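chain below, 232 aa
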Amino acid sequence: MSEAFKAVRQLLGYPAEISDARLAEAFTHRSYAMEKRLKFDNQRLEFLGDAVLDMVLSEWLFARYPEADEGGMSRMRAALVCEAALAKMARELELGQHLRIGRGEQDAGGAGRASTLADLFEAMIGAFYLDCGYGPVRDFLVGLYSRHCPDPRSLVESTNPKGELQELAQAKWGEHPVYAVLSVSGPEHKPVYQVEVALHGYLASATAAGRRLAEIAAARELLAYLKREKIQ
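prediction:
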């Protein structure tokens, strides 16, 4: 067992007989792999971890909210696996301190970047699944999310934030919200969009795996701000 991943193994409950090989891969950023001329990085495990997260959270939401329809569960799941949510989990678990990242990327602040941390969380889940199976991964994730987000419905208070923002804009100012893509990042198989919404001088932005989801998240952020400031 490597000291480098001892804390991660304890966090996940890894059996002693399983090697660190896949964890090492999960915590290897592509910049480090290029710098050290390694034949692997964490992108493949990230792809797998994304699918495992979707499965576990779908099962959890299905059991937790028997009255919820498909659309409601999809919105809750999207909020739970968005870049910001996964990066927050990674920070609270202090995963970034174990990430192997290239010098240039490190100097540019890459180790603390939300997209990097979200990818790292997914890659770790992918490695955990391959090494220990579905049951331990499910138990870990359900426990984690139950502590940090006991009621996922609170993340999606508005079932149609874009529509709600549109109605508010027309009623109060006679305007339309304007959405703009600020950036597109991430791997080709899962691009991450950062979208900004502007309305009557007010701005909000959000990131998500898909332009539509990012627009919805940005609208929700702006609605929340307008409510807090009693501008509605």
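The first helix runs from residue 6 to 12. The chain has eleven helices and three strands.
thats it, cya
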